[in-house]
Amino acid sequence: MNLMDFMRTTIRKLGNSQGVLIPKPFLAQLGLENEIEMDVEGDTIVLRKPRGKAREGWAEASRAVAASGEDGLVLGEFGNAGDEELEW
Predict the structure, then answer these.
(1) Rounded to 10 degrees, what is the CA torsion of 23, 27, 33, 37?
(2) 33 is in which domain, residue-wise?
(3) Which SUPFAM superfamilies does the UniProt entry name for this protein (predicted)?
(4) Which residues lie across from 37 on neighbouring strands?
(5) What is the Cα–Cα distance from 7 to 66, expressed in whole angstroms?
């Protein structure tokens, strides 16, 4: 199959959502495996390879915030309702 080949498919009910099945040759041609990015551009649903891994860079960003001293509690410490009844 070529990307220029168009295919009509059915929108199927999947639980509370709906979806379409993407043929394996389409996925293989684009190198898609387990994850995609999805967007709406005009009247088109666009599926593309993820640009980065989920949470990529979070560890480095956390270290930078900690090093800057800006990682203090925003609301301060406070207990939950009923905590006074707990035995520690």
Answers:
(1) -100
(2) 12-48
(3) AbrB/MazE/MraZ-like (SSF89447)
(4) 48
(5) 51
Distance CA 17, CA 52 (A): 26
Number of compact structural domains in the chain: 1
Measured from the Cβ of residue 27, the count of other Cβ atoms closer than 10 Å reads 13
CA–CA distance, 69 with 87 (Å, rounded to integer): 33
**Continuous segment of H or E residues that includes residue 67:** helix 58-68
Specify the pTM. Answer: 0.48
Note whether residue 32 is domain-resident.
yes
Q: What is the pLDDT along the chain (88 residues), one digit of tens a residue?
A: 455 567 788 999 999 999 998 888 888 888 888 888 999 999 999 988 888 777 888 899 999 999 998 888 877 777 788 888 888 7
Q: How far apart are CA 11 and CA 20, in angstroms?
A: 5
